[in-house]
Design goal:
The complex is a heterodimer of chains A (674) and B (231). Chain A is α/β, with parallel strands linked by helices and 674 residues long. Chain A is 26% helix and 18% strand. In chain A, helix 8 runs parallel beside helix 17. Chain B is α/β, with parallel strands linked by helices. Chain B contains nine helices and five strands, in the order H-H-H-H-H-H-E-H-H-E-E-E-H-E. Chain B starts with 7 loop residues before the first helix and ends in a 31-residue tail after the last strand. Classes of the chains: A alpha/beta (674), B alpha/beta (231). At the A-B interface, strand 7 of A face helix 6 of B.
Chain lengths: 674, 231
């Protein structure tokens, strides 16, 4: 623990800290471009220069200098001021003065830091060098003349994404950042380089020239494109959500966001259900709310009612529907739309118990039936970290392109019943062994077999440092899944039980993945926001709110409760889901016990106190013991197209483009001249 | 006009465009038997897990093989870089980074003789402009290949032969102490298929020893001498 002095103030810093970190701990702001907490240290922008004694009598790059005992660091001396001005002047030599037409304007590190640390005016009168644009795919717009060669994007793609596709070509003044032969960047986290870029060289292509940061209203929310629950910020102007950016949460998504979560935002304003419809003679007809609710009342289901929750709905919606059903005397609730029917008696067995952050410290990981890159892109980056720390990864399932060394053991789930000896000994010898069962694994009975292995090898154990390690994990794919399971949205036989019950009224809460042909005899009331599969099958459509348009609670795959705020209002006549369900209760003469959202929440929290804490983990208790069973069958991953997994994404033009170009190989469309 | 001290030719470096024709010509590139053995030997120089370090010598080897096949100094078409990347099991972009960084890797086709004239200050003071004029007179195109396929001319920065300036590097050999006449003689000899003497062209000079008499450090001739006290 070296002691250093920063601007005369002595402080102790952790061993291995850099001078830059020491300065930050002392509360000093150090300007930087290339340095990033989550990337390796490059030390090439030179903006973080400070004066350090003892040492050579010149300013030193603090990001790459280890803090050592007895250092005297100055961040406020004349030398430092001049050094920063000098570096800034060099950086601006080739940087165009096009801030007024640059999308980074207003949230640009270079802009901010040149105001704070640069000289007042320019002394440079020569030509600036220009660099041709590089194509990087449908998501990343490049203006490479603005690039200051910090190489954050290069390091991100190599270190975090694990896909070496961006590089720094040529040298010196002619150095250019490019993908190989200007091919599109294809991995699932690619757009994070836009956030990393400290200047306007890499900006968001779909968002180009759409809005300025200062005219946007920022609302904190939760990503619903997968079950990770990435923390996001929705930037809205007026009634439209303009863009989605990740927020930092080290326990969940660090500061990354999958491309799908980021770019399904334009799907929020397309193909929306903005008025109620009822089906007359096979055709949908727009009607008023009164008529639509009257149509629901006419169904008069009695207790022959069932509810299926979609992948994107919040806990409150599901709770309101549950109350409605129980008021009518039904408890036929289901959320696993595609027919999964794993045992949910003990939710610890279907939880991501090691935690998303915890999996980084695992040293042997067996993945059963999960295409992690597509099912939880952010988690895949964590797995890569674990492998970098020495973890071995084995995967049962069809092969996919991992971003780390991993061994595929075969695509039949039965491999799990009889693991190869080297896999068994790797798991046995590991200090923190982990098992990850994905949806495709759950479909083939991997849950029971996995629990048996976990018990046999003691995946739940107390470590040397006294902490408890639980390496048994289930990775879900739907944002609503864990919340739904907590509320009891699970029948013993899954959705076939719901179909077998032949409900008179099937309440579809944005359920767009259900095979509705099995419900031919039911009247389907669809409460959702997009004209997708559910709406096509519906007899009554009640337009509801998307995740950005309502306050809601989501429980992610590790059982973390997270609250999302409302960013914008739903379009047209659409209402918030809970209010629609309350109105249905009214016309069906059911008392659900709440008249306002606050009352709903109070009732919810009274019944499920674990949901009360924003950011808290639900304690599901110990894993079940004595479980046995065997897995069997060819594993088939449920996601066929990463970019089109939910109704919002399917409505998004951007993601349609991504799907066509990145997954199906169509040629990029030339953009019209701007 | 020189722009801000950066040589204009360096800015001209670019990767030869990828095309079906290029793929058809070079897609089947593979080491010759002799080069395969050499490549194996090169890779073995580096410790296990550090095979990527071999990318530089292997790119050179590949360039020479391309040169042998095309009877030129050789260059690195995209498929050949991909071959090297595959051979070392490393991402192609990392190989391209190396190949584009170092100017001794030719990114576009060159002639049989790649004439690199040093134009940095000592050579310039000793008459490199005359050498460049000779190249121009021989119709060597800058960066491209002359019509007869023999010549590619590049003006380069210091090659570290200042004491025998001006100098020219042609493929692997240096020719120093040049004048326009001597240079022309060398070029003609090369064109005739001869192998002119490399190194200094000054009669009586062997290497970069002082031309004529010693001008300073006289006391060092016989034995080591500490001059520091005399400063």
């Amino acid at each position: 623990m070296p002691k250093v002095k920063v601007d005369g103030v002595e402080l102790e810093v952790p061993a291995g800290a850099t001078v830059l970190q020491a300065c930050e701990m002392a509360g000093k702001e150090i300007p930087r471009f290339c340095y990033h907490e989550r990337l390796s240290i490059a030390g090439n922008c030179r903006m973080c220069l400070v004066e350090v004694k003892p040492g050579p009598p010149k300013p030193q790059a603090s990001c790459a200098l280890p803090a050592a005992e007895g250092q005297e660091i100055r961040t406020d001396s004349e030398m430092v001021k001049k050094a920063r001005e000098g570096v800034m002047e060099f950086l601006l030599i080739n940087h165009p003065l096009d801030c007024p037409i640059c999308d980074q304007g207003g949230e640009c590190d270079l802009q901010d830091q040149s105001v704070a640390y640069g000289r007042g005016s320019s002394r440079y009168h020569e030509h600036k060098r220009a660099v041709t644009e590089k194509y990087m795919g449908p998501l990343i717009k490049t203006v490479m003349t603005r690039c200051i060669q910090c190489t954050r994007c290069v390091r991100f793609s190599e270190e975090i994404a694990g896909v070496d596709e961006i590089g720094a070509l040529y040298r010196g003044e002619n150095m250019q950042i490019s993908t190989y032969l200007e091919k599109a960047s294809t991995h699932e986290l690619s757009a994070n380089v836009i956030d990393l870029c400290p200047v306007g060289a890499l900006t968001s292509r779909p968002y180009a020239f759409e809005a300025r940061p200062w005219e946007l209203k920022k609302t904190i929310s939760i990503d619903v494109s997968d079950a990770i629950g990435s923390n996001i910020r929705v930037d809205a102007r007026g009634r439209e959500a303009m863009r989605i950016l990740p927020r930092v949460n080290d326990d969940v998504n660090e500061e990354w966001l999958s491309d799908k979560g980021r770019y399904m935002v334009d799907g929020l304003s397309k193909r929306r259900l903005d008025r109620p419809f009822i089906r007359l003679d096979g055709k949908l007809k727009a009607v008023s709310w009164d008529e639509a609710l009257a149509a629901v009342a006419k169904i008069a289901p009695g207790n022959s009612i069932a509810a299926v929750a979609g992948d994107l709905v919040d806990v409150e919606t599901m709770y309101a529907a549950k109350k409605l059903l129980s008021g009518l005397g039904s408890s036929v609730l289901e959320g696993r739309q595609t027919g999964l029917a794993y045992d949910t008696a003990n939710l610890a067995a279907v939880n991501f118990n090691s935690g998303l952050a915890g999996i980084e410290s695992a040293d042997a990981i067996l993945i059963v039936g999960s295409h992690v890159r597509w099912e939880a892109a952010v988690l895949n980056a964590r797995l890569r970290k674990a492998v970098k720390h020495g973890a071995k990864v084995f995967i049962i399932g069809p092969e996919w392109a991992t971003t780390y060394p991993a061994e595929f053991l075969g695509s039949d789930a039965s491999v799990l019943n009889n693991l190869p000896a080297h896999v068994w000994s790797a798991l046995q010898g590991a200090k923190r062994p982990a098992l990850i069962i994905g949806g495709a694994g759950l479909a083939k009975g991997a849950l029971e077999a996995g629990l048996a292995i976990s018990e046999q090898l003691g995946f739940v154990r107390t470590l040397e440092d006294g902490s408890v390690w639980n390496g048994f994990n289930v990775l879900h794919m739907a944002a609503s899944r864990m919340g739904g399971l907590v509320l009891g949205y699970a029948q013993k036989g899954g959705i076939s039980d719901v179909a077998a019950a032949k409900p008179k009224l099937l309440l579809s809460l944005g359920a767009d993945e259900v095979d509705y042909t099995k419900f031919a005899d039911s009247m389907i009331v669809y409460v959702g926001h997009h004209g997708d599969k559910g709406a096509h099958a519906a007899d009554v459509i009640l337009p509801a709110s998307a995740f950005t348009e309502k306050v809601g609670i989501y429980v992610n795959t590790e059982g973390r409760v997270q609250f999302a705020e409302k960013a914008v209002f739903a379009p047209g006549d659409a209402r918030e889901d809970w209010a629609i369900l309350r109105a249905i209760a009214q016309v069906l003469n059911v008392n659900v016990g709440f008249d306002s959202f606050d009352e709903l929440r109070s009732a919810l929290f009274a019944e499920y106190p674990a949901l009360l804490v924003d950011g808290g983990l639900i304690d599901f208790g110990p894993l079940p013991t004595g479980v046995s069973g065997s897995a069997a069958g060819e594993i088939a991953y449920p996601i066929k197209d990463f970019y089109l997994t939910n109704p919002i994404a399917r409505a998004s033009e951007t993601l349609a483009k991504c799907s066509a170009e990145l997954l199906h190989g169509s040629q990029p469309q030339a953009e019209a001249a701007e | 006009m020189l722009s801000r001290g950066v040589h204009p030719l360096m800015a001209d470096r670019h990767i030869y465009p990828d095309s079906p024709e290029l793929r058809a010509r070079w897609g089947n590139f593979a080491w010759t038997e002799a080069n395969a053995a050499k490549a194996k030997e090169i890779v073995a120089r580096y410790p296990e897990g550090r095979q990527r370090s071999a990318s530089m010598p292997l790119l050179d080897l590949a360039q020479r093989q391309v040169g042998a096949e095309t009877n030129t100094q050789g260059w690195l078409p995209i498929p050949v870089m991909e071959y090297v990347a595959n051979y070392l099991d490393m991402p192609i972009i990392r190989v391209v980074e190396v190949a584009t960084f170092y100017t001794m890797y030719n990114l576009v086709p060159v002639g049989k003789f790649h004439v690199q004239v040093c134009g940095t200050t000592p050579c310039m003071l000793r008459g490199s402009d005359d050498l460049i004029s000779v190249c121009k007179a021989k119709k060597m195109p800058t960066g491209g290949v002359s019509e007869d396929g023999l010549w590619t001319f590049t003006e380069v920065e210091c090659m570290g032969n200042c004491s025998s300036a001006p100098m020219v590097q042609i493929n692997d050999d240096n020719y120093e102490d040049l004048t326009a006449d001597r240079f022309e003689g060398i070029l003609d000899a090369l064109a005739r298929g001869e192998s002119p003497k490399t190194g200094t062209q000054e009669p009586g000079r062997h290497t970069v020893e002082p031309a004529g008499a010693l001008s300073n450090l006289h006391a060092m001739v016989g034995e080591n001498h500490d001059y520091r006290g005399e400063w």
